[in-house]
Amino acid sequence: MIEKRKNARYKTFVTVRYKRSNDESGDWRDTAQIKNISLGGMLFSAYEKMPVSTQLILELRVPTADSKAKMVILYGKVVMVEDGVLTYDTRVKLGDLDMVNKAALKEFIEHIS
Question: What sign does the dihedral 94-99-100-103 (CA atoms) show?
Fold first, then answer.
């Protein structure tokens, strides 16, 4: 298999909250567990199967050097979903990040790498 990713992915097992961009109810799902992440995307396990191309808003709480947590807001699109035993492995391509969220995500990735 040829690797097409621009950014290396790193294993991690942290939770992420997400909701669909077009969800009028505004309900967040707290049950997703990230398996790997990069500046360009992530793979997480979700209890719902989402269609490819679903637009998501994701909230990732990342640890900081001073033992506090920082909230990182990410926007992405579902690019692949694979059936698992109890969950669905959901691959998300991240959209452009603003400077603050990109710096926080980069700091988190450096921390886990």
Answer: positive
Q: What is the DSSP string of 48-112?
A: S---TT-EEEEEEEEE-TTS-EEEEEEEEEEEEEEE-SSSEEEEEEE----HHHHHHHHHHHHHH
CB 17 within 8 A of CB 62: no
What are the structural domain ranges in the chain? 10-112
Fold of the CATH domain 10-112: Thrombin, subunit H (2.40.10)
Phi, psi (5° rounding) for residue 102?
-65, -40
* Confidence (pTM): 0.85
Which pLDDT tens digit goes with each residue over 2-58? 456 577 777 887 888 999 998 878 788 876 789 999 999 999 999 999 999 999 999
User: 50 phi and psi, to 5 degrees?
Assistant: -105, 145
